[in-house]
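ok, trying the design again with the full structure, not the truncated one.
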């Protein structure tokens, strides 16, 4: 519900984590280096399942409506980590202390207060409820995971995933334990990229931890197929996905994955088999498609090679390989999604729109998952450089791209495919 007349005030927090609304100063938002008031059409109530974070070493920033000046408070800044299916159109406004430590791997959305509730600047891009666990008790999830541990003692992959459901609360592992939606199939221990925001590996000197432990063994084709068959047997519209947060690049294990998919298909396995990938190895795609793969999801922070390179820091592959993977996948009948890591102010610019329109028009992906790039905003802007153009806003960006590429659908998650066509949750 976009409320036209809402003008939220700023919020701030004390050192105990108590959050307050300011009596006068207005909510400010940030897009790249721009500091502005939120656009009325981008404000929505804070979605259920979202979190509010207190930002250490960062002072809350608001607009004094009398002077029209931005004012920094002594108190801490607050940001919103919106729940899945929502894409941020602006990040939190704050004044950072020189000694501030880096923020962990989350997306820091702008948040304000009005009419007794919190407001954020975001758009819901998908109605899919696969990461909504409201009404599902932790006991039920634990029972499902314990059952997997007991019934499959020899399957290291199921043991790994059941533990992830119990300890890390990984939504994909929880869905496997519950027998619903999308099951995770991590296989790869290495990666040929060094993304700034990698959630499974962070170098010592990065200043913040990886949020997931990278898998420390390579499952056998039989172990993988056993997970696939189990999930496919007991799930409506099952999706089986390689390329998870707890691993490296799955295409580095392409022959293992192809063998597992072929075993699954030859045993009559049904369901959408997908790979989330950095798309670095185009020559692996034909054999995977032949084995029975249905879709790939290609991660990109930008359609501009220079901005892609500074973030992904590819080793042994080039941006051209990523594009060739998309065209090869299409040529082999696969459904292609872009996992588009959107950062307000850096992506919604004329140059990026031009580059993305060109990429989409020439390589013809089918679907764009509008994800929030989860990294300390200062670090990301420092990495890709100050945006040289004004931001047009998320809604405008999506509308204009769709105008030129009308076949494109937007979402947030890998869709289940029936005869190659996405079954979207309406
Ligand atoms: S491609 Fe994935 S696994 Fe590799 S560095 Fe990037 S985020 Fe990490």
């Amino acid at each position: 519900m976009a409320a036209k007349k809402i003008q939220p005030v700023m919020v701030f927090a004390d050192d105990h984590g108590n959050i307050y609304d300011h009596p006068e100063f207005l909510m400010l938002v940030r897009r790249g280096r721009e500091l502005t008031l939120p656009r009325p059409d981008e404000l929505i109530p804070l979605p259920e399942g979202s979190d509010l974070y207190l930002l250490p070493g960062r002072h809350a920033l608001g607009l004094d409506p009398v002077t029209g000046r931005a004012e920094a408070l002594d108190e801490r800044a607050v940001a919103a980590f919106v729940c899945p299916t929502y894409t941020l159109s602006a990040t939190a406004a704050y004044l950072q202390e020189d000694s501030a430590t880096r923020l962990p791997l989350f997306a820091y959305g702008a948040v304000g207060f009005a009419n007794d509730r919190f407001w954020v600047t975001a758009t819901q891009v998908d109605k899919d409820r696969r990461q909504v666990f409201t009404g599902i008790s932790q006991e039920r999830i634990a029972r499902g995971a314990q059952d997997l541990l007991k019934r499959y003692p020899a399957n290291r992959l199921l043991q790994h995933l059941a533990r992830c459901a119990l300890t890390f609360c990984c939504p994909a592992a929880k869905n496997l334990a519950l027998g619903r939606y999308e099951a995770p199939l991590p296989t790869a221990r290495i990666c040929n990229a060094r993304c700034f925001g990698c959630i499974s590996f962070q170098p010592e000197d990065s200043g913040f931890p990886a949020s997931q432990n990278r898998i420390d063994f390579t499952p056998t084709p039989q172990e993988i197929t056993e997970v696939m068959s189990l999930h496919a047997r007991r799930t409506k519209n099952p999706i089986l996905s390689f390329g998870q947060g707890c691993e490296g690049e799955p295409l580095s294990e392409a022959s293992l994955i192809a063998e597992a998919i072929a075993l699954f298909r030859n045993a009559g396995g049904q369901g959408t088999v997908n790979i989330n990938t950095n798309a670095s190895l185009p020559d692996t795609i034909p054999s995977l498609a032949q084995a029975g793969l249905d879709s790939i999801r290609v991660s990109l922070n930008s359609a501009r090679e220079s901005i892609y390179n500074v973030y992904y820091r590819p080793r042994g592959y080039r941006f051209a390989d990523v594009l060739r993977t998309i065209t090869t996948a299409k040529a082999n009948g696969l459904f292609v999604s872009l996992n588009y890591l959107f950062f307000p102010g850096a992506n919604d610019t004329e140059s990026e729109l031009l580059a993305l329109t060109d990429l989409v028009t020439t390589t013809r992906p089918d679907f764009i998952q509008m994800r929030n790039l989860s990294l300390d905003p200062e670090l990301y802007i420092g990495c890709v450089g100050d945006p040289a153009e004004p931001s047009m806003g998320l809604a405008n960006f999506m509308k204009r791209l769709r105008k030129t590429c009308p076949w494109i659908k937007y979402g947030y998650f890998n869709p289940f495919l029936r005869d190659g066509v996405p079954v979207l949750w309406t």
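Keeping the full-length input from now on. The longest strand covers residues 51-64.
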